[in-house]
Amino acid sequence: MAKVRLNDLVLRDAHQSLLATRMTTADMMGALDMLDKVGYWALEAWGGATFDSCIRFLNEDPWERLRTLKKGLPKTPIMMLLRGQNLLGYRHYADDVVGKFVEKAAENGVGVFRIFDACNDPRNLKHAADAAKKTGRHVQMAISYATTPYHTKEIYADLAKKYAEFGADSICVKDMSGLLKPYEAYDLIKAMKAKADIPVNIHTHATTGLSVSTLIKSAEAGAEYLDTTISSMAMGTSHSPTETIVEAFKGTKYDTGLDTKTLLEIAAFFRDARKKYARFESSFLGADTRILVSQVPGGMLSNLESQLKEQEAQDKMDDVLKEIAVVQKDCGYIPLVTPTSQIVGTQAVFNVLFGRYAKITTETADLVTGRYGALAAEVNPELVKKALAQNKYESVLTARPADSIPNEFEKIEAEAKAAGAKTTEDVLTYAMFPKVAPVFFRDRAKGPVSSDEFAVKPALTGGPAQTASAYIVNVNGADYNVQVRPEGTVAIAPAGGVPVQGGAPATRTGGVTVNAPVAGTILKQAIAEGAQAAPEDTIIIIESMKMELEIKTVQAGKVHFLVPVGQQVQAQQPVAEIG
User: Fold this and answer.
1) Within a 10 A sphere around the Cβ of 496, how many other Cβ atoms?
2) CA 516, CA 499: separation in Å to the nearest integer?
3) CA distances in angstroms from 441 to 24, 59, 426, listed in the order given
4) For residue 242, which of 220, 218, 272, 211 has the smallest C-alpha distance?
5) 266, 436, 450, 499: least surrounded by Cβ within 10 Å?
6) Which pLDDT does position 488 carry in this prediction?
7) Cβ–Cβ < 8 Å for 541, 523
8) Inter-helix orientation angle 424-432/95-108, to 10°
9) What are phi and psi of 492, to 5 degrees?
10) 366 and 372 Cβ atoms separated by less than 8 Å
11) 458 preceded by a cis bond (ω within 30 of 0)
12) What is the pLDDT at residue 128?
């Protein structure tokens, strides 16, 4: 048997890191026979952002993708990435939802559960690990790797010991940003194996240029499993090329036993497939050593780039990367991995745009007050004070976050069925993304999006910046300004009036205007139309960059909303009037 076994990430993390997770199932199908016969230990193909992307952008059922891939990969286990108590969402779920999700994932084709928690809080992993053990599948528990004064090899070794006691079949060092250095990897693996006699898997991104040498030193230290991706989907924010590692070990005691000829055929397949997704390509294609400081994960870089474009702040990337390091420290040196990478990244963007902590997302407030789990170090006390006041919390939570969440599957099931869910899998899709799932259920019958359409349709995220087209349209003698934006939304307003996206013009009342601070979607109106608001009352919740931000009043008065719930808005677009 080979000394070192490889997992290929081409079906999940590679295109999540390089192509904004847009690869369709149809574009994977032609490679499945080749992938299945190579001899990988596992193929990572599900979890992470793929679930979200399937229903949000591709009109694909993620559960059907899993079943299809399993049918095409009868010999090779499918690995999924599971965020512990977060599952695939951005909040903690009750234990009954976690158990049901893991059960259904195993039934539909998952063979290896890689389970991690952004806080490295074992309390957030125990229930998911227990549920996965019940399915009889391989349980790999992951340590989110960060380089801070509070993350040492001794602490990581103790975590490995704890996870082994949980019944983990293997341990993964999950280096999301390419921070793990070769000799530090060697020492870390030796320390872990001294505490826990359990196989070790190394997952490290190529972002900083360290990954190939890190994988080689990891094998020398005794790591049994290494993550790579086929060369045509490797490097940049992705991972080390599979063929490179195979050739590096060929003829040594670490020989993987994989056939380079077949790997080159797979590489050719994905080289052609990748061309279809050019508009989603990240601009971070070389080694970006800024990440050694900012610690931004590979999968987040392309998303952060796109999100800054949405905010018309493309020139702020360097400032944001520097600010991320500040926010990470203020948030207790939290490892940057989903969802904390998005929380910290979005907060850093808002700090750059509006001033440090002038606007705090709901998720940042939850993170620093213990709602995501225990943090490695003390949080900035001023930030905690602001967060407690904003979210009206009495104190920082010290118990396991999920202990305060009562069983919720039956409640979610009723809501999901009302929204169009047909199966238990649909209910779980709704549980993960309750705002997106109903639209997917409605449109599912239209069938999946074809990647051929990406060549002619405007990019949903990423790609070159595009300008809007403006027109003046006369309707029944009245002039209206109409703006068609690159993402496909339409803004309509009376000449000199207030734009309302995708609908009729709003009626101005002459009051004081409240503008959206950032581009996003109106998520909730926190007060009734026409109700009296006091200064600094929250009147609207906007979703921006996957995070929630409160929009407050500027003075006392009656509230008149200019944009309905569910509509997209641009930065500085009027969304309400007070008067």
Assistant:
1) 8
2) 12
3) 18, 9, 8
4) 211
5) 450
6) 45
7) yes
8) 120
9) -125, 135
10) yes
11) no
12) 97
Locate tokens 């779980």: which residue? 428
Q: What angle do CA 110, 135, 56 make, to 5 degrees?
A: 35
What was the pLDDT predicted at 535? 85
Strands (E), 412-501: 469-475, 478-484, 490-494, 500-501
Output the pLDDT for position 89.
Answer: 84
| CA atoms of 220 and 59, how far apart (whole Å) | 44
Per-residue confidence (pLDDT) for residue 212, from 0 to 100: 98
10-residue mean pLDDT series, the chain (579 residues): 88 93 97 97 94 95 98 98 93 96 98 96 96 98 91 94 96 94 97 96 95 98 98 95 97 95 97 94 79 69 72 84 92 88 89 92 94 93 94 92 96 98 98 94 96 66 40 42 46 42 48 85 88 88 81 88 88 88
């979210």: which residue's tokens?
391
Cβ neighbour number for residue 243 with a 10 Å cutoff: 19
pLDDT value for 568: 86
| The pLDDT value given to residue 466 | 40
| DSSP H or E segment with residue 247 | helix 242-249
Cα 569 to Cα 567: distance, rounded to the nearest angstrom: 6
Contact 420, 438 (CB under 8 A): yes
**pLDDT value of position 509:** 56
C-beta separation of 102 from 135 below 8 A: yes
Token pair in block for residue 218: 């990891």
What is d(CA 132, CA 141) in angstroms, rounded to the nearest whole number?
A: 11
Q: What share of the chain is helix, strand, coil (3-state, %, to 5)?
A: 40, 20, 40
Cβ neighbours of residue 408 under 8 Å, at least 6 residues apart?
93, 94, 96, 97
Q: How far from chain centre, in Å, is Cα 264? A: 30
Handedness of CA 245, 246, 252, 256 (dihedral sign): positive
Closest CA to 239 of 554, 15, 486: 15
- d(CA 393, CA 196) in angstroms, rounded, equals 40
pLDDT of residue 249: 97
DSSP, res 278: G
pTM above 0.90, yes or no: no
The pLDDT value given to residue 502: 38
The amino acid occupying position 533 is A
Phi-psi region of 569 (alpha: psi -120 to 50; beta: other; left: phi over 0): beta
Residue 491 has a pLDDT of 46
Structure tokens at 159: 């975590």
What pLDDT was estimated at residue 508?
57
Backbone angles phi, psi at 80, to 5 degrees: -120, 150
Tokens of 346: 């979005």
SS (H, E, C) 75-123: CCCEEEEECHHHCCCCCCCCHHHHHHHHHHHHHHCEEEEEECCCCCCHH
